[in-house]
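Action item from last meeting closed. Structure (338 res):
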């Protein structure tokens, strides 16, 4: 549909052109009047296609029950100049490489996405690819499965708007969650596991991460939880954080010009490789509270806390497991107490 305002309600729509190199099952191109698309089942069988594609200068409401693609194509694709709301049930892509389940580009307005189940099977095939701007972005997701090499679960990048992610289960071949720009708040309610990259990578102003279940980087030199902020950085790990390389299971840094404190509260953290369990660095103080931390490192630290400019370095630790040649805890403050 095309016009200043577009309203589409569809029960079943299929683009059956398997040999095609463009096209969609449902397409809406709206002006400032915006677009409303309500879809039951939509599927695209060709290459470089979309099950549902929406371009709009105005607001977008997209409600989809089931969307699927079979080649290098997008499930749901939205580009808008103003508010976007997406309520998605199931999105499935089975393309061999480069497929994306949900793609959104909104430079200057709020985005709210609620997703049930996302599944991609190919390499470099992302569950959600969201490009933000000045507007706030809120994502609530259920299950995301992206097992292919280089396939991220949620990739939310760019812009100064606040970013809030609440996720259920993520199993990814790439990063589980990557998010950058603005104030960041990530909460996981289930397992977040990457088979070859980091589970959570966040880089913003003030960063807060709360995890439950298992948060793990199963291979490579990646942290399970890696957070950077020019303001304050807080990680609350209520489950297990695990890495397997030279990078700590939990690694955070609050060292910007306006940095606040760096704070880690962790139940269980472990590194089966050569890195530490927890490394926390804060320009204006650092506090680590750990119930259990362990590393297989033959010569390093289990917990390392550093206050680089001001404030204290404080470590409150329960169980520590390291090796004979390593230091269990290292706390350093350049202009405070440790």
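Sequence:
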């Amino acid at each position: 549909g095309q016009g200043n305002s577009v309203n589409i309600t569809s029960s079943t729509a299929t683009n059956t052109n398997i040999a095609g190199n463009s096209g969609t099952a449902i397409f809406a191109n709206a002006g400032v009047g915006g677009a409303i698309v309500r879809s039951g089942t939509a599927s695209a069988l060709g290459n470089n296609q979309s099950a549902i594609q929406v371009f709009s200068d105005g607001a977008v409401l997209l409600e989809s029950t089931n969307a699927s693609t079979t080649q290098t194509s997008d499930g749901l694709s939205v580009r808008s100049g103003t508010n976007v709301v997406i309520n998605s049930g199931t999105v499935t892509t089975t393309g061999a490489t480069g497929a994306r389940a949900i793609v959104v580009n909104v430079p200057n307005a709020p985005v709210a996405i609620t997703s049930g189940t996302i599944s991609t099977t190919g390499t470099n095939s992302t569950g959600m690819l969201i490009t933000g701007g000045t507007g706030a972005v809120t994502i609530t997701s259920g299950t995301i499965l992206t097992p292919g090499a280089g396939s991220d679960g949620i990739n939310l990048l760019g812009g100064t708007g606040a970013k809030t992610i609440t996720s259920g289960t993520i199993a990814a071949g790439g990063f589980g969650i990557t998010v950058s720009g603005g104030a960041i708040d990530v909460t996981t309610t289930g397992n977040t596991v990457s088979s070859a990259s980091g589970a959570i990578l966040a880089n913003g102003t003030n960063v807060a991460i709360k995890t439950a279940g298992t948060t793990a980087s199963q291979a490579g030199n990646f942290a399970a939880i890696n957070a950077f902020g020019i303001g304050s950085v807080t990680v609350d790990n209520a489950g297990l954080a695990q890495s397997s390389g030279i990078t700590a299971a939990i690694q955070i840094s609050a060292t910007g010009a306006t940095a606040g404190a760096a704070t880690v509260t962790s139940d269980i953290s472990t590194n089966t490789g050569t890195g530490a369990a927890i490394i926390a660095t804060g320009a204006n103080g650092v506090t680590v509270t750990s119930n259990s931390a362990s590393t297989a490192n033959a010569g390093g630290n289990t917990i390392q806390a550093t206050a680089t400019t001001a404030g204290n370095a404080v470590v409150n630790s329960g169980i520590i497991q390291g090796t004979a040649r390593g230091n269990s805890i290292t706390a350093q403050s350049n202009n405070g107490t440790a």
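Note appended to the action item: The CA atoms of residues 48 and 73 lie 5 Å apart.
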